[in-house]
């Protein structure tokens, strides 16, 4: 089932927290580092699309707990992702990589609208496509968008950057004997209640047989490693 590396086309999901280096806004050093890793692998011929989160600006759920209308707060969340997209675009282009930002909410001055077939054309030409504004719909997450975009543009794998090394049989922060899975099936994750991605994203991947690699972004160089096909993190597949 699973197509081993080298991959032809991947979707890399970066959470917003990454962009801010744990703070509000964008940390240029962090984004520059991510861009340099992506640039290195794109030059080897792998087609890379990036789905960008926005948790470093706003999370709809948090704003709505504070009293905002949930849907409107989610739109703020989606707009936040676009700022991260522009930052990543800038640092990639500084490294000589052509890019296109495509957003699910149209904003013609700064990005193309999301047009899947055009995204594929860009990828074929070696451009990095950066997907912003989530799905354009409230009540979704950018994890789900990562899965959906990967399916629609025919990526072989969803690479999900997180702050842990992969999927463990217990919380490694609490249980010192926790062990990491090199590989685990969708079914076992479900059965044992491991949260690899949000439920909607997970079920899309499982239903359509799209493998996910969960890997640790905090280790320098991991983005390039995982895109190149080095076996880091945990592979979740059928
Ligand atoms: N969001 C949304 N629809 C989407 C994607 C995102 O409404 O399709 C909103 C939602 O409020 C979310 C915020 O944008 O909290 C930021 O996205 P996410 O939480 O997925 O970012 P990450 O956790 O990856 O930083």
Automatic annotation (TrEMBL):
Pathway: Pyrimidine metabolism; CTP biosynthesis via de novo pathway; UDP from UMP (UMPK route): step 1/1. It is found in: Cytoplasm. Gene3D superfamilies: Acetylglutamate kinase-like (3.40.1160.10). Its EC number is 2.7.4.22. Inhibited by UTP. Residues 9-216 form the Aspartate/glutamate/uridylate kinase domain. Keywords: ATP-binding, Cytoplasm, Kinase, Nucleotide-binding, Pyrimidine biosynthesis, Transferase. ATP binds at residues 13-16, 55, 59, 162, 168, 171. UMP binds at residues 54, 74, 135-142. SUPFAM superfamilies: Carbamate kinase-like (SSF53633). One of its GO terms (molecular function) is UMP kinase activity. It comes from the Bacteria. It holds the Pfam family AA_kinase. InterPro entries: AceGlu_kinase-like_sf (IPR036393), Asp/Glu/Uridylate_kinase (IPR001048), Uridylate_kinase (IPR011817), Uridylate_kinase_bac (IPR015963). It catalyses: UMP + ATP = UDP + ADP. Homohexamer. Belongs to the UMP kinase family. Catalyzes the reversible phosphorylation of UMP to UDP. This is Uridylate kinase.
């Amino acid at each position: 089932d699973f197509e081993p590396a080298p991959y032809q086309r991947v979707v890399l999901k970066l959470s917003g927290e990454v962009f801010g280096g744990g703070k509000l806004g964008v940390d240029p050093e962090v984004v520059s580092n991510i861009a340099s890793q992506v640039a290195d692998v794109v030059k080897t011929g792998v087609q890379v699309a990036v789905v960008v989160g926005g948790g470093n600006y706003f999370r709809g759920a948090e704003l709505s707990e504070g009293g905002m209308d949930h849907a409107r707060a989610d739109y703020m969340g989606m707009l936040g992702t676009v700022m991260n997209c522009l930052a990543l675009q800038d640092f990639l282009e500084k490294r000589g990589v052509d890019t296109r930002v495509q957003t699910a909410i149209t904003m013609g001055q700064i990005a193309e609208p999301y047009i899947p077939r055009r995204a594929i054309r860009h990828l074929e030409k070696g451009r990095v496509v950066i997907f912003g504004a989530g799905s354009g719909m409230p009540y979704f997450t950018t994890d789900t968008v990562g899965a959906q975009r990967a399916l629609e543009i025919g990526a072989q794998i969803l690479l999900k950057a997180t702050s842990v090394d992969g999927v463990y049989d217990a919380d490694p922060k609490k249980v010192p004997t926790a062990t990491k899975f090199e590989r685990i099936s969708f079914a076992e994750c479900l059965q044992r209640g491991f949260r690899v991605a949000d439920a909607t994203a997970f079920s899309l991947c499982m239903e359509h047989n799209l493998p996910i690699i969960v890997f640790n972004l905090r280790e320098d160089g991991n983005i390039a490693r995982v895109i190149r096909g080095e076996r880091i993190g945990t592979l979740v597949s059928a």
